[in-house]
Amino acid sequence: MHEHATSMSRLPVSRVRTVIDAWADRTAELSAIPDVEQVFVFENRGVEIGVTLHHPHGQIYAYPFVTPRTGRMLAQAAARPGLFGDVLKAERAGARVVLSGEHWTAYVPAAARWPVEVHLMPHRHVPDLTALGSAERDELAVLYRDLLRRCDALYDAPLPYVAGWHQAPVGEGRDLVRLHLELFSVRRAPGKIKYLAGSESGMAAWINDVPPEDAAARLRAVRPC
User: Which domains does the chain show, CATH number per domain?
Assistant: First the structure.
């Protein structure tokens, strides 16, 4: 029976694993289409994010170009070989790790822009979801569901969020960008939203009053609901 009103965090691990396989399958199919340069798998949840279809759902975009965000990642990775591995090594040795397993680590990045922001990165350098092995997908299903449940437990209410998979471009640059998830929320406290005001909107200089170490500690401390 299909449960159209449930959320990703409430699915059994086996069904989360099915969703991961679907992401990988659609990434492979779309990547094979001529003129597709990049595939973006993501989920928007919550009216605060701007969702207008209120049943839980994910989306997949296939772009005929490399997105500006990925273009910047490519330039940074080209300038510093091994960038993603260096970032992961530093994060795993620090105080911002939220969850970690044999194949994946979830952490709050050092320069987090949002009150709630977590990155989930595989320990192995893979370009996209299609390259994940069976054991990596199995662990991802467990850790990702755990992460979502921790996010929902922060404020005792479902957290509005954007969760997007950064994948390498289809063509040039596949060896530079490592697959990783970025999950963030505009909710900074119960009933309060982080708005992009003068500094962020006017100068693109982000102000976040939540230290990333504190955000990681809160996510570690909550009991997944």
Answer: 8-221 (3.30.428.10)
